[in-house]
Amino acid sequence: xxxxxxxxLDQVAQRFALxxxxxxxxxxxxxxxxxxxxxxxxxxxxxxxxxNASQHLGRxxxxxxxxxxxxxxxxxxRICEPSIEHLCxxxxxxxxxxxxxxxxxxx
Length: 107
What we know:
The chain is an alpha+beta fold. The chain has helices at 9-18, 22-34, 39-46, 50-62, 83-96, and strands at 37-38, 66-71, 74-79. A three-stranded antiparallel sheet has the order 1-3-2. Strand 2 (66-71) and strand 3 (74-79) form a beta hairpin.
């Protein structure tokens, strides 16, 4: 495992904290599926209210995980952090992999 320099531990913790919320993960999944999407589209795909989606997208934007751009009167969101897809793939693969750990009970 790579050694994380102490100077960036807080940033790493903040990134994982942003990704620890199931609603934010559903929102990220929706954005990933669409490539780009409006708050309304993301809210519908994530099964949350527009206000809730907007709040979570704001946090993800502050964390530089998503970015927003204006197209006329419409704001669209997209994932801007290239490592997010890879990180999610690693975690999901580890959950889908069969547990090969052998447990032996002695008594």
